[in-house]
Amino acid sequence: MKITTIGIDLAKTVFQIHGVDSHGKTVLRKKLDRSRMLEFFIKLEPCLIGMEACGSAHYWARKLVEMGHTVKLMAPQFVKPYVKTNKNDVADAEAICEAVSRPNMRFVPIKTELQQAVLSLHRVRQGFVRARTAQCNQIRGLLSEFGVIIAPGRTSIAKRLPEIMERTDLPGSFRHLLQRLYDQLKGLDQQIDEMDANIEQWHRESEVSRKLTEIPGIGPITATALLASIGDAKNFKNGRQLAAWLGLVPRQHSSGGKSVLLGISKRGDTYLRTLLIHGARAVIRFADSKPSNCWINKLLARKNKNVAAVALANKNARIVWVLLTQQEQRFRPDYVPAVAA
């Protein structure tokens, strides 16, 4: 009995394993505790192992690769069609084992520890930003109950809140509560500034990240997030595949030879797509100061700003793919494609 392919249904403490031989016949069904995972696979002959790209998948993939196994990660939505019966651990492991052997299956690159460390900075920073926004909205909502209206935005709160806390027409207990909320808001600002400093330091140490910031609309935060998420850009066949992975291309609903294109698919990483679109909006804001023959100005002449922002984000994603796959290339603002020339 030689196991050639294994599917692992990952969990927090209990893992379900399904293995088949070279003829596709089931030869292994086993449930393992977390503590026995490495012990089991280190005794196993090297084989193909499939897992869903979920929590802790990249950690286990690195460990299994070190043992000599070939590990491939797949998006959960690509595994779901292979589930034959009701959802359970045994059926999921069998579906993963079946899906990983498909020749046209799409796989997720295994992230390194450095990539995951940088992405952790971004995720923690994103959580602090959300908490700060919620804090600002809570302060504005509480003040509105007392007839005090503050314009949206952190700047307005930081400017007006100190003087509001000095007002004698507000109850003392409420002013004390405002002080606590204001202190908490300043603490969140400090945490975000520290996260930004850590990201900026990693950005300065990475030559590739600095190269990406030469593209208008991409700053240190976007550049580091792209590098940590994409990894080896050669996993994508071309720039359009990268843009599609980010959800920046139209959805299709075509049939009978008739092509129907809808809005952008919004697939992939929401965080990366948001950064690229916000960066594109910043470029559009100052597009009027550019020459009249600028590509974005021509686009704005016939499309609204939101459509133009997505189009520019799509273009920037394709440029990123070129810069990552061709290390000698640098961004050239005056570059004209051969077809256009």
From TrEMBL:
Transposase IS116/IS110/IS902 C-terminal domain residues: 210-287
Keywords: Coiled coil
Gene Ontology molecular function, alphabetical: DNA binding; transposase activity
Cross-referenced InterPro entries: Transp_IS110-like_N, Transpos_IS110, Transposase_20
All residue ranges annotated as the Transposase IS110-like N-terminal domain in the record: 6-146
Coiled coil segments of this chain: 178-205
Origin: domain of life: Bacteria
GO biological process: DNA transposition
PANTHER family listed in its UniProt record: PUTATIVE TRANSPOSASE FOR IS117-RELATED (PTHR33055:SF3), TRANSPOSASE FOR INSERTION SEQUENCE ELEMENT IS1111A (PTHR33055)
Protein name: IS110 family transposase
Species, as recorded: Glaciimonas soli
